[in-house]
């Protein structure tokens, strides 16, 4: 928690050595060591209120909407009728806020491991934690992995809104987790998981994508722009049990009027399709992963 | 030039107050005060060699390709036959490198105001300044604005690869500059200009887009991901004298084999099209600009 110096918060991480984003701090609204991680809420000068976990920016008021909308609507709009949804993680409430907007969704289970994140979000991030007020939502404070072991063919869509693959979220990036999700899905079910940034963390992208390929019949990797994340973007891996799912073509196309009503500031059907159009170097990376050209050695991606 | 402290370079700018990207420095390879700006070359730990002008990152070895490819191929592939091309700025040689790859291009004039940038790029950024070796290229050290005043219907495509709209590049973001470019273009000619990032600099985006709208018959704003630029992306304004130009559909579609041969790591026809698919908040911003709802008051964008 010594990440604030001379009025600036700096985001150092072994996941992106040699690069650091800093935000000028107006006020430290909260900091604590929860049972799982360091939790901090900052009032920044440029980006509004920000949630920091273990020294890493999770969301800022200025740009959280792009991430929340995309991790929610990419899978939801790729499913013909997403009635029952499970959210793993997402303790700030942002994903619950977006998922509850979808008219087909009837029931949302959410399982977040860290009660402290929920509590500070309710207090300091009302624009996100409003998601917890949805009558569709059942919020469980528990380990997502353990929670899902008890589920069998229960959900149409499972969204994993985790922090990075170090600390409490590590297990959510493993092969076993994708197996568990497959079991917890109804036939034709869809998953969407935070899966690393292709410019900076090829290992996480490739390994998550490969796990998903092993368990799901149709798989894609999509990108969203989030200025306060490292490299300014992050990716999602999506998998479907229906081999005919084409993630690039949303089944549910909301009109501009509907998107306005849902206060979607980033997502549209066009943006949905374009999220899966990747730069050539990323296309090649995932093609290699598909062909199994990439083997895993000592946790590093080698070709 | 006091932007390096404790082995880290930090990019502070009044254009993005309260946010700062820092790169760990292995070595300061060069620094000087040229006739126009502070010029610095850093060897960074994470991103290879980097060119810094007036304290702002212009390009790093790790990610410059996305910017250079897109600012070049978006306009070139939107033109039916881009024979004569003018590059304004681009003193690192990266745009010349890309433009010279296009098989239709026969002649490239480039006008860069700062000889020092060319010299340090030749010495420290050979992967970019290789562009200066093209037999198609005539390199002029001069003011782009003054250079173009003498041109009349000479070019098929004009690419403006400038630094940000403070300092030597300021005039390249003004309405008069778009008038000049129109005059220097052959019938059906196309321009592409660096035009600010939509997450952080709405004023530059809207004003550049509006200037372009006044002078050109078909206009679009496209986005490219550049991790070491503020917000991780930057935008281009493109304008065509041909009202039938549809920037979203490239006229020239290179095959994968051709793109491999040209060493394109970011650009493809699909990426071309998707660059113009904008998040809803950006669509609305530009629609407002089109409708003229936005008036300029004291240099600030007000609605």
UniProtKB/TrEMBL annotation, chains A, B:
Start and end residues of each PABS domain: 6-241
Keyword Transferase listed: yes
InterPro entries: PABS, PABS_CS, SAM-dependent_MTases_sf, Spermi_synthase, Spermidine_synt_N, Spermidine_synt_N_sf
Catalytic reaction list: S-adenosyl 3-(methylsulfanyl)propylamine + putrescine = S-methyl-5'-thioadenosine + spermidine + H(+)
Any one GO CC term of the record: cytosol
BP-aspect Gene Ontology terms: spermidine biosynthetic process
The EC number(s) this enzyme carries: 2.5.1.16
Entries under Pfam families matching the protein: Spermine_synt_N, Spermine_synth
Domain of life: Eukaryota
Pathway of action: Amine and polyamine biosynthesis; spermidine biosynthesis; spermidine from putrescine: step 1/1
PROSITE patterns named among the record's database cross-references: PABS_1 (PS01330), PABS_2 (PS51006)
Alphabetical list of CDD domains matching this protein: AdoMet_MTases
Active site: 161 (proton acceptor)
Any GO MF annotation of the entry: spermidine synthase activity
Keywords, ordered alphabetically: Polyamine biosynthesis, Transferase
NCBIfam families given in the database record: PRK00811.1, speE
Quaternary structure and interacting proteins, as annotated: Homodimer or homotetramer.
Family per similarity comment: Belongs to the spermidine/spermine synthase family.
Function: Catalyzes the production of spermidine from putrescine and decarboxylated S-adenosylmethionine (dcSAM). Has a strong preference for putrescine as substrate, and has very low activity towards 1,3-diaminopropane. Has extremely low activity towards spermidine.
Name assigned to this protein: Spermidine synthase
Upper taxonomic lineage: Eukaryota, Metazoa, Ecdysozoa, Arthropoda, Hexapoda
